[in-house]
Write a structure and sequence with these properties.
By secondary structure, this protein is of the alpha+beta class. It has two domains: 112 residues, Rieske [2Fe-2S] iron-sulphur domain (Rieske Iron-sulfur Protein), CATH 2.102.10; 221 residues, Naphthalene 1,2-dioxygenase Alpha Subunit, Chain A, domain 1 (Alpha-Beta Complex), CATH 3.90.380.10. Helix content is 21%, strand content 33%. The chain has six helices and 18 strands. The strands form four sheets. A seven-stranded antiparallel β-sheet has the order 12-18-17-16-15-14-13, covered by helices on one side. A four-stranded antiparallel β-sheet has the order 2-3-4-9, with no helix packed on it. Strand 10 and strand 11 form a beta hairpin. The mean pLDDT is 96. Bound molecules: FE2/S2 (inorganic) cluster and fe (ii) ion (FE2). The site of fe (ii) ion (FE2) has 7 residues, from helix 2 and helix 5.
Length: 345
C-alpha cells in the first residue's frame, strides 16, 4: 500500500512516552519512541542493525538507547555511539531517525524523506491547549485500514443506526435524517462535511450530561478532514437562534494513523466548554465515547474489513454509493492525488 509520507501523522499522546522505550508501528515501520533526560522526544527505527533485535526491548543509558541483545548503543541521530565489543564504532551500524514534533499534547511523526515541515501541522487542534475547554483523550486500536476509519467519521449517517446512546427519543431515525441539513465543502486540502438540525430535540448526552432542558435546540456536527487522515470535529448545540459560541461547544480531534495496511491507530480527544472542572463529567464523557468507538465503530470497521477479503481499497470493490458518501470520496480523491504527486517527485 502506498501512503502519503511527507506529512505529520499522530504517533502518541505525550503522556504515553517517557524514558522507558515505547514501541509502535507506523505505515508498517517499527519505531521506538523515548525521551532523553532533557524531556525531548525521539523516534528511531526499532530494529538493531546487528541481529535485528527490537531496540524497544532495551533501555536508555546516558540518553543512548542500548540494544538488549549484545549491547550496541545508539544516539538520538540513529548512529551507533558505543560498541562494548571493540573500541571502533561500526560505521554501518545506524538506524533511521524519524523527525518528531510535540504539540497539542501529542507526538507527531514525519515518515517521509523530505525535510520535516512544522508548518504542515494543522492549526485546527488548538482547542487541545486552550483554557476555554476541558479535554478527555483516548486511544483505540482498530482492525481495519485507516481509510475505513476516516470514511466512518466523514459519514455520520451511521450514527442513529450504530450508536443508540446518541438517539433522540422524540424522533425516529428516518425523521432525524430528514430533518438534518447537509452541505459538502471541498477545498484544495480540506473537506468539510457539514450537518445541522435547527429547532429539533437535542440528543441524549446534551440533556443528560450537560443538563439542557430545552425541548428544541440548534445542533451542528461538522467534520473537517485534513490530509492525510486527520479530523477536526466541530460539534455543539445552542438554544434556538443563539450564537453557536454561546452554547455547548464540543470540538474534537480524531487522528488516524495507519499501523499496517489492515490495522490503524485511532487517537481521539474530546473538548467541552461546559462543566470544565468536573471530573465526573470526564468519566461520563469518556464512557460514552469509549462505548461508541470501542464497542460499536471498531467492531463494525473490523467486520467490514474482513468482508472485503484481500483488498484494503474499498473503491476496487465497486461499492454502491449513497449521497452521504460525497465527503469520504472527496477526501479519498484529494489524498490519492497527493500520494500520486509525491510518488511522481
Ligand atoms: S542485535 Fe543489537 S547488538 Fe546484537
Ligand atoms: Fe461512529
Amino acid at each position: 500500500m502506498t501512503y502519503l509520507r511527507n506529512c505529520w501523522y499522530a504517533a502518541a499522546w505525550s503522556n504515553e512516552v517517557s524514558e522507558e522505550p515505547f514501541a509502535r508501528q507506523y505505515l508498517g515501520e517499527h519505531v521506538v519512541l523515548y525521551r532523553t533526560a532533557d524531556g525531548k522526544v525521539h523516534g528511531l527505527e526499532d530494529r538493531c542493525p546487528h541481529r535485528f533485535a527490537p531496540l524497544s526491548m532495551g533501555c536508555l543509558v546516558e540518553d543512548q538507547i542500548q540494544c538488549p541483545y549484545h549491547g550496541l548503543r545508539f544516539g538520538t541521530d540513529g548512529a551507533c555511539s558505543y560498541n562494548p565489543h571493540y573500541k571502533a564504532l561500526p560505521s554501518a551500524a545506524k538506524v533511521k531517525a524519524y523527525p518528531l514534533l510535540e504539540r497539542y499534547g501529542m507526538i507527531w511523526i514525519w515518515m517521509g524523506d523530505e525535510p520535516a515541515d512544522e508548518s504542515q501541522l494543522p492549526e485546527d487542534f488548538g482547542f487541545l491547549e486552550s483554557e476555554k475547554f476541558t479535554t478527555v483523550t483516548g486511544y483505540l486500536h482498530v482492525n481495519g485500514n485507516y481509510q475505513l476509519v476516516v470514511d466512518n467519521l466523514l459519514d455520520l449517517t451511521h450514527a442513529p443506526y450504530l450508536h443508540p446512546a446518541f438517539a433522540i427519543p422524540e424522533m425516529t431515525t428516518e425523521e432525524r435524517l430528514k430533518r438534518t441539513t447537509t452541505e459538502l465543502v471541498r477545498e484544495e486540502r480540506r473537506v468539510i462535511a457539514k450537518r445541522w438540525r435547527l429547532s429539533c430535540p437535542p440528543n441524549g448526552p446534551t440533556r443528560t450530561l450537560f443538563g439542557f432542558k430545552d425541548k428544541l435546540m440548534d445542533s451542528r456536527s461538522h467534520m473537517h478532514w485534513l490530509p492525510p487522515s486527520l479530523i477536526y470535529f466541530d460539534a455543539g448545540a445552542a438554544r434556538v437562534g443563539e450564537e453557536e459560541e454561546k452554547g455547548l461547544c464540543l470540538p474534537a480531534i480524531h487522528a488516524i494513523t495507519p499501523e499496517t495496511e489492515r490495522t490503524s491507530h485511532y487517537f481521539f480527544g474530546q473538548g467541552r466548554n461546559m462543566l470544565l472542572e468536573e471530573a465526573e463529567a470526564d468519566e461520563t464523557l469518556l464512557g460514552i465515547l469509549r462505548n461508541a468507538f470501542h464497542n460499536e465503530d471498531e467492531p463494525m470497521i473490523a467486520a467490514q474489513q474482513s468482508r472485503m477479503g484481500d483488498t484494503t481499497e474499498i473503491m476496487d470493490l465497486d461499492p454502491v454509493l449513497l449521497k452521504s458518501d460525497g465527503a469520504p470520496i472527496a477526501a479519498r480523491r484529494i489524498l490519492s492525488g497527493m500520494i500520486e504527486a509525491e510518488q511522481a517527485n
